[in-house]
Amino acid sequence: MGLATPVDTPEAPNNTNKEEASSEKQTSSRTTHNPGPTVLPHILDIALAFSGRRPARKIAEHDDLPEYLLPYVGMEFKSFEDAREFYNRYARHAGFGTRIGQTNDANRYVYCNRQGTYESKVEETDRQRDKTTNRCGCTAGIRIKEKGPYFFVIETIRFEHNHHMIQSPSMMNFLHSHKDFDPSLLEFVKFLQFENVSHRTIMSILYSSVGGAQYLTFHGRDLLNRKAINSQEDIRDDINKLLSYFGQMKACNKEFFFDFQLDDERRIKNIFWANASCRGSYEDFGDCITFDTTYKTNIHKMPLGVFVGVNHHLQSTIFACALIRDESEESFVWLFRTFLRCMNGKQATIILTDQCPSMAPAIALVFFKTLHKLCRWHITRKFNQHLSNLYKTYPTLKADFTGMLNWPLMPTEFEQAWQNMLDKYDLHDDTMMLSLWEIREEWISAYFKNVFCARMTSTQRSESMNASLKRGMLKKKMSLHRFAEQVNKLIFERKQKEHAKTFSAQTDTNKRTHYGFENQFRDQYTKDVFKEFQQKLKKSTLFRVKPNPDYPNLDESNYLGCSVFM
């Protein structure tokens, strides 16, 4: 692309004859090749033009382009769109963009994208955005005339531009006329977007699919705009899409259960659902459940509540999910009653929750046959700062306090140990210790010795499940129907892990002793439970016998002491 002789930018001709004469002159110039300026003057001309010391030269006809790319007067097409595409293809190779102009009777125009000038409707001092324009009054373009059905002809052409061309092909995708949004590619991007694939990963996949970044016909900002449009379209009529999704799940399996509650204005207030596999798991493993809520999982900012238990492989399993508008007692009463109705009225033996003040009365009202145990982690977390100060004051207190909570004591043993700790560190008047003591029967494991708790002392399993959802599946701006789809995927993943454990249980676990009861337990327990039993059995034998120093005269066979073997 050479720079033509410096001339003043002329105004657009007003009559057709002058335009045709100009175009004929330019068409004839294609037959004789005039050598352009050398490289050094070319660079100097551009530098001087941008510095303001010399007016920018017009871009003349491109002698370096092949003949088949150049438009000419009299070129015929079957449609205006064919003509526009041809001129746009020429513009891509020449280094400029195009835009469609006005229609005048049978005449249509395609201009350089920098044609015309922009007139601001507001004063410069009143502008809210620092927006600029690339319009510079360029007159390059073509006039296409419709001479009959399926018969369009280029009548006039203007090749001259009053601005510099884009030299790099990789920059052409910043011009709107040269962007190509393949519908199948956009659908693939939409699929990746709603599968929570990151923007960088999507761009990397697209680069690889077309053979390199330079061949992609749009850039990253275009993709972000497209993803924003996808999100806006996805949110529309969100509730109906969610109910439609639940209807599809119900059609696939009639055991799928869902229900919702409306407020006084007939709007969705609370939503509950449980897969058929979840209901089956509760029937088998619903003795002990944990319930916890988490935030920032959907665009409506509705807290997510998950009922979680433990299966026979010691894995966490989901029983049901719910979205509630608020954590009021009324919402929890509706939620727990719906849960019981879903599970055919079967109440759990014990339920673990945090210290939510509105949840406790709802549990007492609905789960009247279920013991309510508070999460130990939530209780101690409230006093973290106070405990830290006490640990600094009494270095051995932490070991005594945690050991007392973890050691399998009976209620009377725990109460005696607690009093001994208060005496040892003089904590009888400590407000934290008094508060913990008043609610001891609601969170200390010693008071639940006769209840199967599935080795759970906190709502950690529910919180871990919530974390798994938020880590790779849920986003705070996700629509509800997409949210339900992602939760269903997590449920399926958990079931797959359970099936993998069940399949691996077909082989026997190796024995570690010659005890006959080990054979019996190996037949009755799953692999994971049996391995847990083997660990406990091993630890129960890690003792060594030694003489008691208080009775040196006694025979070892009569009185012996023991210590833990380390």
Question: Please, could you describe this protein's structure?
Answer:
The structure is a single chain. This protein is α+β, with helices and mostly antiparallel strands. The protein has 19 helices and 14 strands. The protein has helices at residues 16-28, 39-51, 80-94, 183-194, 199-210, 220-235, 238-252, 276-285, 329-342, 359-366, 376-382, 384-393, 397-406, 411-425, 431-438, 460-472, 480-504, 516-524, 527-540, and strands spanning 76-77, 98-104, 107-112, 141-148, 151-158, 257-262, 268-274, 288-294, 304-310, 316-324, 350-353, 371-374, 543-547, 560-564. The strands form 3 sheets. It has a 7-stranded mixed sheet, sandwiched between helices. It starts with 15 loop residues before the first helix and ends with a strand. 21% of the residues are buried. Residues 1-60 have low confidence and may be disordered.
